[in-house]
Design a protein that fits this description.
Layout lengths: L23 E5 L3 H12 L3 E5 L3 H8 L10 H7 L4 E4 L2 H6 L3 E4 L14 H13 L4 E5 L7 H12 L6 E5 L9 H6 L4 E4 L3 H11 L6 E4 L1 H32 L3 H9 L20 H14 L5 H13 L2 H9 L7 E5 L14 H11 L3 E5 L4 H7 L6 H4 L5 E4 L3 H5 L4 E4 L4 H4 L3 H7 L4 E4 L6 H6 L3 E3 L5
Parallel strand pairs: 1-2, 1-4, 2-3, 4-5, 5-6, 7-8, 9-10, 9-12, 10-11, 12-13, 13-14
This protein binds uridine-5'-diphosphate-xylopyranose.
Length: 463
């Protein structure tokens, strides 16, 4: 069981459970959005049934184990176990629910659009199951207009004579801080097209004691995309400026610090690096671009953010290619695999693309990540699959410490700013590596300090 650290949450969100009017809530999907939302709603006093089609995940959760790595989640699952149920039996879960939240995935399709298969599947199951009036709340990130379609779809498949309304309630949690982000959200967006739906959602969120912004369904759907795309743009903008900083002899860290004092800009999300990854920004930028194109509009700013990010992810690899004659037979230390610290998620992680490039060039990779190695082994196996064997010339080994990865290495790439990786001192690179050549995608170190310690150091946006 992880340490219960939610005592650090601000006191105003610790509302006693007894003050709550509890709802019977079902949550479809137990991924980062569904499970965290369900557990937090139980923590705020509601009775929650989490539904998933994955038998293994359900078995784990029934034992009080979280299937995903997320700070405080397992602790809250255990603390609220009398209000939480986990099941594959969606019929029972939906039949008795006052409110059903849909938190299933909307993965990216080859053309950039969001895949609505899972949403539609759940919507149909709900329509064919519910026996009393019910509010269906779409939490998954969906293209503008999807709530209308979901409502119509449910209407088309309803079996019993009941009223099923649909509301939008996008989720803004970030992985690694998902529980805190949910319990201390700066705002909750509810998108409804009827007073009844609005009242119900207001009542569900009342015990959270957080500001609620109530808008139309379409505006709510757009707020989610607009917010995520804005953040992605902010990151790509800083990466773009960082690349120019290198050319003109400025330092992006100083530039970001100077910019951040302006309250109109703010100091968050100004970190230049190896590009954004994860399950949201890459997918949501492409989905919004697709949506705009569908309506005959060219979203030029978002297109630029996507383009910059694509190049940014392989920037360090390209720099290393200019410096080294070959990767073939070199020992390459890879520090950090997940798309950011605090999560076990590798979706769109810059490390993956770079590892594949290095393997294709024959590098002998020693990879370290405090949490993500197991998941990475499923994507890039240590031994290589039958299928991979002909493809990769190099080899990957997953090791248990940064030091082990660095021992005798010819080159090192840093892709995730985990504390365990930040703890490696500049002198350790010099001491452990055969050639102290470091490419840092997260600007962890001071350039001068690395130089003083005899490390040949390349980072982002700094001379
Ligand atoms: C994001 C949004 O923050 C969240 O509100 C939404 O619900 C889902 O998408 P998440 O994908 O978990 O959350 O991670 P986030 O912390 O936002 O970082 C996204 C990516 O941007 C990461 O790859 C991160 O390394 C990168 N990033 C972030 C930067 O490169 N620089 C920054 O300054 C901030």
């Amino acid at each position: 069981m992880s340490n219960i650290s939610f005592k650090t949450l601000s006191p105003q969100v610790q509302i006693p459970v007894s003050t709550v009017r509890p709802f019977n809530i079902a949550v479809a999907g137990t991924g980062y959005v569904g499970l965290v939302s369900g557990v937090c709603m139980a923590h705020r006093g509601h009775r929650v049934t989490c539904v998933d089609i994955d038998e293994k995940k359900i078995a784990l959760m029934l034992k009080g184990i979280s299937p995903i790595y997320e700070q405080d989640l397992e602790a809250l699952m255990q603390l609220n176990k009398e209000r939480l149920t986990y099941t594959m039996d969606y019929k029972n879960a939906y039949k008795n629910a006052d409110v059903i939240f849909i938190g299933v995935g909307t993965p990216e399709q080859p053309d950039g659009s969001a895949n609505m298969f899972y949403i539609a599947n759940v919507a149909r199951q709900i329509a064919e199951t519910i026996e009393k009036d019910c509010l269906i709340v779409v939490k998954s990130t969906v293209p503008v207009g999807t709530n209308d379609k979901v409502e119509q779809f449910i209407q088309d498949f309803l079996v019993h004579d009941v009223k099923a309304e649909v509301a939008s309630n996008p989720e803004f949690l970030a992985q690694g801080t998902a529980v805190r982000d949910t319990l201390e959200a700066p705002r909750i967006i509810i998108g409804t097209d009827s007073d009844k739906a609005e009242e119900t959602l207001q009542a569900v969120y009342e015990p959270f004691g957080l500001p609620i912004v109530s808008v139309s369904r379409r505006s709510a759907e757009m707020i989610k995309y607009a917010a995520n795309n804005f953040l992605a743009l902010k990151v790509s903008y800083m990466n773009d400026i960082a690349n120019l900083c290198e050319l003109v002899g400025a330092d992006i860290e100083d530039v970001a610090r100077g910019m951040g004092y302006d309250s109109r800009i703010g100091s968050n999300f100004l970190h230049a690096g190896i590009g954004f990854g994860g399950s949201c920004f890459p997918k949501d930028t492409k989905a919004l671009d697709y949506l705009a194109t569908l309506h005959g509009y060219e979203l030029r700013t978002v297109k630029a953010a996507i383009d910059v990010n694509k190049d940014q992810k392989v920037l360090l690899y390209q720099k290393a290619c200019k410096r080294l004659i070959t990767f073939n037979g070199l020992k390459a230390a890879v520090l950090g695999l997940t798309f950011k610290p605090g999560t076990d998620d590798l979706r769109e992680a810059p490390a993956l693309e770079n590892i594949n490039l290095l393997l294709a060039q024959g590098a002998n990779i020693y990879a370290y990540d405090p949490i993500g190695s197991e998941n990475c082994k499923n994507i890039i196996p240590e031994t290589g699959t039958e299928q991979d064997r002909g493809k990769y010339k190099g080899k990957i080994n997953y090791v248990n410490s940064a030091e082990e990865a660095l021992e005798g290495a010819n080159v090192c790439f840093i892709f995730t700013e985990w504390d365990e990786i930040k703890a490696v001192l500049p002198k350790d690179y010099k001491k452990l590596m055969r050639t102290p050549l470091v490419y840092d995608g997260r600007n962890i170190y001071d350039v001068n300090e690395m130089q003083e310690n005899g490390v040949e150091y390349y980072s982002i946006g700094r001379a």
